[in-house]
């Protein structure tokens, strides 16, 4: 078995806490100006009503809700969902999206497995899972030396979250795989029902490297769904047609059930017109595939991995944490609706 590691929606919504279509406090009572007492105490007011409501109190309440497992009921998928998080463009938020969605789902009762398929090992870092050279990792799984369960470790974030880490050994795998039998299906072969049943995840996320090489192809062959994070920046759509062509190739030759199920806009900066332009362009192009939740650019999100954490545990009351939790909820609810229809 796996190892213990060391220690309400509105259209086109930027998730809670951004300067755009919704306010950070729309879901909370009261105003949020620093140190403000909302109303003078009167005899009619309950102690709760007359309490001082400050931004810190507000953030603390948000944090409690993010971390409290019963604050949000996420539907469990009837079938296990395997999602590949891919975009060959570097630095668009693949890893950040993988680990934070995974943590959002896991903190609210679902069991999640993250497979780090990037030799950089960033997802392993953010989940607090050891990935020094020599650690049992996805490399040994790909070459058939270890089973999935033998390489999986429990994340420090929550016991519901497992991670198969990537070590630097994976850097050579792209070349080693070339000469191997069934080189495109090595990961799929490791993700047998038996191996997955042993770990029993509701969700499996595969974090891809920034390339369309054999590792990404392995991820696409092993999954049913592709989740594409798109950064709200210049050249956001550049390279996407190549990614979509590759997905079609995998569909027609190797994995007919593969489909692009989800697009997530990341690093939205409400101060720029460009972010809105990219958002509407992507929505115009991909329609309902794009989650309504948009992830804002936030310093807390980028700081979290430095502490071996996701933003959901690093700063659960922050805008970044709330927005990733919103996105996780949307992903879970969409999956449940699709199964019913
Ligand atoms: N919402 C955000 N706000 C601020 N910084 C962010 C946000 N999302 C990601 N970042 C930062 O942007 C950088 C790139 O993000 P990330 O590593 O998730 O992208 P990636 O697509 O996985 O990159 P690569 O292609 O190298 O694997 C990281 O430093 C990350 O901390
Ligand atoms: Mg990455």
Automatic annotation (TrEMBL):
Gene3D superfamilies: P-loop containing nucleotide triphosphate hydrolases
AAA domain location: 81-259
Region Disordered: start-end pairs: 1-51
InterPro entries listed in its UniProt record: AAA_dom, DNA_Partitioning_ATPase, P-loop_NTPase
Source organism superkingdom: Bacteria
Family per similarity comment: Belongs to the ParA family.
Summary of the function given for this chain in its UniProt record: May play a role in septum formation.
Name this polypeptide is given: Chromosome segregation ATPase
Native source organism of the sequence: Streptoalloteichus hindustanus
Lineage: Bacteria, Bacillati, Actinomycetota, Actinomycetes, Pseudonocardiales
């Amino acid at each position: 078995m796996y190892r213990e590691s060391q220690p309400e929606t509105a259209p086109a919504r930027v998730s809670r806490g951004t300067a755009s279509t919704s306010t950070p406090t729309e879901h909370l009572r009261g105003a949020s100006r620093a140190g403000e007492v909302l109303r003078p105490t009167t005899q009619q007011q309950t102690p709760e009503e007359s309490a001082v409501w400050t931004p810190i109190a507000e953030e603390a309440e948000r944090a409690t809700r993010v971390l409290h497992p019963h604050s949000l009921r996420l539907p469990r998928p009837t079938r296990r969902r395997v999602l590949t998080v891919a975009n060959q463009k570097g630095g668009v938020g693949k890893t950040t999206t993988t680990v934070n969605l995974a943590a959002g789902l896991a903190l609210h009762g679902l069991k999640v497995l993250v497979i780090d398929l990037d030799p950089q090992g960033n997802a392993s870092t953010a989940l607090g899972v050891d990935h020094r050279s020599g650690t049992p990792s996805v490399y040994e799984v790909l070459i058939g030396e270890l089973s999935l369960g033998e390489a999986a470790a429990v994340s420090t974030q929550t016991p519901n979250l497992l991670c198969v880490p990537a070590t630097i050994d994976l850097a050579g795998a792209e070349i080693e795989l070339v000469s191997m039998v069934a080189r495109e299906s090595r990961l799929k072969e490791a993700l047998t029902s038996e191996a997955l049943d042993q770990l029993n995840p509701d969700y499996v996320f595969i974090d891809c490297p920034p390339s369309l090489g054999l590792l990404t192809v392995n991820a696409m062959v092993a999954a049913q769904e592709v989740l594409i994070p798109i950064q709200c920046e210049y050249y956001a759509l550049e390279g996407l047609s190549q990614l979509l062509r590759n997905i079609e190739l995998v569909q027609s030759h190797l994995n007919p059930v593969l489909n692009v199920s989800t697009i997530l806009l990341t690093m939205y900066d409400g101060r720029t017109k460009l972010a809105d332009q990219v958002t509407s362009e992507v929505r115009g192009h991909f329609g309902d595939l794009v989650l309504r939740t948009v992830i804002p650019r936030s310093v807390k999100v980028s700081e979290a991995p430095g502490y071996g954490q996701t933003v959901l545990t690093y700063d659960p009351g922050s805008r970044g944490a709330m927005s990733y939790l919103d996105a996780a909820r949307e992903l879970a609810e969409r999956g449940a609706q699709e199964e019913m229809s």
